Amino acid sequence: MLKTGTNKWTLKDVITLAIFTVIIFVLLMIVMVLSNILLTPVGAYFASPGISALLAGPFYMVMANKISKRGVVFLICTITGLLFLAIGQVYTFVIYFIFGVIGELCMLGQDAYLKLFRNMVGFLFYMVALSAAAFIPMILFREQFLAWYSTVGTEEVISTLIQVYGSPSGILITIALTGAGTILGCMIGQRILNRHVKKARI
Amino acid sequence: MKHFQDPRLTLGGLFLTAISILFINTSIQIHLLMGISVLYLLSLNKFREAIVYTSIYILLWGLIYVFPSRFGDVGVVIMVTSKMMPMVAIGTVFISTPADAIMLAGHKIRLPQAIIIAICILLRFSSVIRQEMHRIAQGIRARGLLPHWYSVILHPARSYDCFVLPLIIRGLRLSTELTCAAQFRGIENSTSRTCIYSIAVTAKDLIRTVLHGIACVAVLWFGRNL
Amino acid sequence: MIKLENVIFQYGQETEGSGIHNISFHLPPGSCTVLCGSSGCGKTTLLRLISGLAPSVYPGELSGNIFIGGKSIFDMTSSDKATMIGMVFQDPRSQFFMPNVLNEIAFSGENLGLSPDNILSKVKTLTAQLGLSELIDRDLDSLSSGQKQKVAIASAMLLKPPLLILDEPTANLDSTGTKTLIELLHKIKQDGTTILISEHRVHEFLPIADNFVCLKNGSIAAKWTQSEFLQLDCQKAESFGLRHPESGFIDSQKNISAAAKDLLTIKEISFRYSKYAPVIEQLNFSLHRGCVTLITGDNGAGKTTLGKILCGLLRQKNGDILWNSEALSAKCRRLKSYFVMQDADYQLYTESVGNELVLGRTLTNQIRERAYAAMELFDLTKYKDRHPASLSGGEKQRVTLAAAYCSEAELIILDEPTSGLDVVNAKRVAEFIQLLAHEDRSVAVITHDDLLLRLIEGRVIKL
Fold this sequence. Notes:
The structure holds three protein chains of three kinds. By secondary structure, chain A is mainly alpha-helical. Chain A has one domain (11-200). Chain A contains eight helices and no strands. By secondary structure, chain B is mainly alpha-helical. The radius of gyration of chain B is 23 Å and the shape is flat. The chains are: A mainly alpha, B mainly alpha, C alpha/beta. Chains in contact: A-B, A-C, B-C.
């Protein structure tokens, strides 16, 4: 099912992207809420992007395969960012937009959206953006953040904050967990593509 | 014609609040920013939202002050959330703006047609997708496949397949059906667009925006030593 | 208004469906034409071609010419299509773009840049004409099927397109809803709009249809005028795969054997379908083993809600439901029941029909044999390795029925199993439903399909 040549988006491509982005976003929200309840909120911060990637991976893979045109990662990031913007999460929107640009640059080349490994990379940018929205502002505006939190929180809380959102180990753990979820999710997605979507010719 | 504030102005207010939050360094400043956001809501007659967000804000800060160190990890999240509240409150204004008004605003700033169409689908289909998930869950229960609440834990692979596959198929079918319907609604037309609501900037909108801007800057400038 | 010249179409690899083999015809402006035929005859494909959906959304190879109002469909832009053609689809869920009635009807006008005053004036006229004025501020999700259908038609007619196309508009409507639809279409036709309808329940459109075009295997098998179609007897109609008002009448009495044991006894239950619906109160009846019970009523009467309550998916507000004369919780009832939803897409999970029938069971020889027997009985053996999602609507329905047969459920509930099916497939479904009941199970069928009511021997409960 190689598609070569046109990168012009059709109305069907746009609508497919929008619908699957909504599905992925709703899954992200459900996982976030449930993991905040079942794990501790900090545990949720570390684990929920990875769990979301595991659940959302197949939807991303099917969408990417169906559309298979330049701009999928950029648009899915931008649209998700807009959804977060609609609920007041401005930093998340900015991070998603930036990650969308970088992720799309990583997807340059012919038929990138038909290849499992390339899709894993693109999707990883999408999923890491979720936690990056927390740790990047912490890194860039560290002094202001710490100054503000120290006026309201205890030392114990501040050190947890730094450990979770501001330390290299905290960042690496969240990226690693997200990466694991992304790899598994995309692999399951590829399996679903082969066993179901292509077989049923949907 | 019913009037809504131009979504661009709302977004402007949202971004200004977000930038202000980045540069504050005292707790009084965040209280003032929240107060400004609540006044913003009240000026748009969003009384219910103003009460809800004020109540949540007071609850969060009550927890922080009364139990400063009892909550551990949760305390971190409470603090982070309370800092986001002024933004979230203004986000409410944006999300309650009708989709066609947002699409018109997008058209005015020459957003790509693909994004305008996507915005329309997003706003409509969030509730539809939740209904689809509910139907899929009912379908699973109706076939007796995961009969108990703990079946999901006992059979994770089956649970995963039973949930993900129907949703993928429904997503693909919805995409096709919606594309067919969209062909006859002129949705691809990018030359001109209107809206049955007015988003023209009124004097009230302008005053609100200017006052909001001045207030945020004042909080940053004068509040830094509070 | 519509002109087809030597149209030949074959779907590409990605799409299932029958093609069109050299069709030519002409539909005059202001006329109402009904496309009919058995499943797979090509009427959906023809509709897609006339509306331009094939090959744009449904790729394939096309030759020939298609003109709408003198203009080639292939030369039409998005705006042209919006002003020339209004299209109403079967499923209201996937044709609405806005959350409420007013915005949905106004949507096309907004997209084409009409002035707001112009749009609002058109909306006012249209809603008054179609009886929608009271619903103007309502959310679309709170409307009944019939109301949604009206909104879909209003949305399609905002720009007064000269051609209105409807794809199986009565599939989700009861008899009252169908009558309302016919009256609505009559008004639209009087305004000079050309109407093209694809339908199985063809006779309902006799009051307004000028022509009936019957397809078979992608070609025109017959054409009738209104009076010619009226002359068709049941046997002739069924030979073309068409439903007839007399289809399905059986001579035998609908008696329940006195020895039939009660499986489920419903005592004084009450429930409500939705916030806007009336409460159903003091419902009393029994479901018998080895028998089929038909639950019927108008749309919005609460049939599906009752079905879900019976099998334990929902709880009733008041009253008792006894299983074998003993009280049983909703959860326990659910474990002994099987509910087949109207849309099979929600209940198919595997990559082959064979695996679908044994899903959730430990594969023993006994279960394997039962699955093979089910495939034989439900005529699915040739589809054993096919992916369920690649089957037609009727075939998917058979798979879900076969899966119900393979289960150990004592109570099986089917929700609108013949919706959108032609007469041949509807008769087959009726046979399969009787099969399900033969193993001392109780089968309840939720339906507003008069044909199914005539085809099945069983008690009827009307809500």
